[in-house]
Design brief:
The complex is a heterodimer.
Chain A: H1 2-32, H2 35-50, H3 53-66, H4 79-106, H5 109-116, H6 121-151, H7 163-174, H8 179-210
Helix pairs in contact in A: 1-2, 1-4, 1-6, 1-7, 2-4, 3-4, 4-6, 5-6, 6-8, 7-8
Chain B: H1 3-11, E1 19-30, E2 33-44, E3 48-52, H2 59-66, E4 74-79, E5 82-83, H3 91-96, E6 98-101, H4 113-123, H5 129-142, H6 158-170, E7 176-180, H7 188-203, E8 208-211, H8 215-221, E9 224-229, E10 232-237, H9 239-244, H10 249-264
The chains are: A mainly alpha, B alpha/beta.
Chain lengths: 212, 265
């Protein structure tokens, strides 16, 4: 079971940070980029938010991973990679929305002031916008993380040995159809709740402290 | 011009004729609206010029054009002879040499007073850590805020915040400081401390262009006052002229209203 927990955690954490990195870039490109860039990002978001992650996973794993086979070094033959990749991009689309809201909430002023000091646009984003955007986004990021932990359970369908896969083995092995699922449910709560709550309270506390 | 200020200026009298900032035939339009209309102005070293005029007359936009925070539609801006409006100039470098103090202050919420002042020293001038701290503390000392260095903006009063705002604009030793109504967002009782800070700067011979309606202060420190209306300079002259005998009808009316309002307060 513990091996399953670590696989679940790894998928969640990797896809969370993949989503964070891409999501931040997308949000700022959308806020300050040209019209075509904004439209392109919009399309990306629509695709990854609109299509169920299960469909995406099967599409990438069977469609690209097996459909295209070994014509090139094909990372999508690896189920763990495929799951993390799909959840990461889906999370990027979600996190981009979260960050965009925070950028809007923060307003233009902080950026104008930063530029007035002689900071470049990138420096202003890194040193002035991002630290504050994180504070605004913390509660949203908490629920996004919880979402990833939960959605990582789809991985068992394409054969990743994570919590759900092991739960299923135990059910098959013991014939017990209740306890393994209750145990899994309990573990999912443990994995999601503390981090989501911590991010939420940290965000509200910082917000209050800084008068945001 | 005050006695003390004359003394301060005496030390740099040779440089007096140097023009720090200049704009020629500056225009700024937003669609059909003209915010700034054909404004030309020269500011010499140690000069203190004060812009005043009705709200919505384009004073703030004019100041922002000078600082290249918004690009002028037409016309040129020069900083120490260097044209900022021509193509291919490094505007970040130019902006680093212009201090700007905002009406609504806008400190960085997530940084302490010290952090606010340090940011440009560290990221723009890229000074070593020790020097950053020293210069930032000195700037806070100059505005009498060193005791509050480690407080966040939310923990400071409006007046204290604006003093930090001034320190933040000052630390890089800019060629000129542009102040956009630095006291108008503050309660009357907090205005005094900011005015005192500006008075100190004036004594040190800081080159400043201030948008303000603090008339007693203007009379005391300004070398020249500029009456701005409908996006352009209507009248320009020494403070005494405005207080005794403004030439234009519009300035006359505006001064009368201002003086009446100041008396009421």
């Amino acid at each position: 079971m513990l091996g399953g927990v670590s696989a679940t955690l790894l998928i969640s954490i990797f896809s969370f940070f993949l989503g964070l990195a891409i999501g931040l870039v997308l949000a700022f490109m959308k806020a300050y980029g040209s019209k075509p860039t904004q439209i392109l990002i919009d399309v990306f978001e629509k695709i990854f938010r609109g299509i169920p992650e299960l469909v995406l996973m099967l599409l990438f794993y069977f469609g690209i991973g097996f459909g295209l086979g070994y014509q090139f070094p094909n990372p999508f033959r690896n189920a763990f990679f495929t799951v993390t990749f799909v959840l990461g991009l889906r999370s990027a689309a979600n996190q981009s929305q979260i960050f965009k809201g925070a950028i809007r909430g923060l307003g233009e002023e902080q950026m104008v002031v930063a530029r007035s000091l002689g900071l470049s646009r990138l420096q202003s984003v890194i040193h002035v916008m991002i630290p504050q955007v994180f504070i605004f986004s913390a509660p949203g990021l908490g629920s996004e993380y919880a979402l990833l932990v939960k959605d990582s359970s789809y991985a068992f369908i394409i054969g990743v040995v994570e919590m759900m896969a092991i739960t299923d083995w135990i059910r098959k092995g013991t014939g017990d159809t209740v306890t393994p699922y209750l145990l899994a449910a309990f573990l999912y709560i443990i994995l999601t709740f503390p981090i989501a709550t911590w991010l939420d309270t940290w965000g509200s506390r910082r917000k209050k402290q800084l008068g945001l | 011009m005050g006695e003390q200020k004359k003394e301060a200026i005496g030390a740099v009298a040779i440089k007096m004729a140097d023009i720090v900032m200049e704009c020629k035939n500056l225009w700024k339009t937003y669609g059909k609206i003209t915010a700034v209309k054909d404004v030309s102005l020269k500011i010499q070293e140690c000069d203190i010029k004060l812009i005043f005029g009705p709200s919505g007359s384009g004073k703030s936009t004019f100041l922002r054009c000078l600082a290249m925070l918004t690009s002028p539609t037409k016309g040129d801006v020069f900083l120490k002879g260097e044209c900022l409006t021509k193509e291919g100039i490094d505007l970040n470098k130019a902006r680093a040499r212009i201090g700007f103090v905002f009406q609504h202050i806008w400190l960085f919420h997530h940084l302490t007073a010290l952090g606010n002042v340090e940011l440009a020293l560290r990221r723009v001038l890229k000074l070593p850590k020790k020097e950053v701290k020293e210069r930032a503390m000195q700037a806070l000392r100059d505005v009498k805020m060193e005791e509050w260095a480690h407080h966040y903006p939310a923990q400071l009063s409006g007046g204290q915040q604006q003093r930090v705002g001034i320190a933040r604009a000052l630390t890089r030793c800019p060629d000129i400081i542009l102040l956009d109504e630095p006291t108008s967002a503050l309660d009357p009782e907090l205005t005094g401390e900011v005015i005192d800070t500006l008075r100190d700067l004036a004594k040190k011979g800081t080159t400043m262009l201030i948008v303000s309606h603090e008339m007693p202060f203007a009379r005391e420190v300004a070398d020249e006052m500029i009456f701005f209306d409908e996006g352009t300079i209507v009248e320009i002259g020494p403070p005494e002229l405005f207080f005794t005998n403004p030439q234009s009808e519009r300035a006359k009316k505006f001064m009368a209203r201002l003086i009446k309002k100041t008396r009421r307060e």
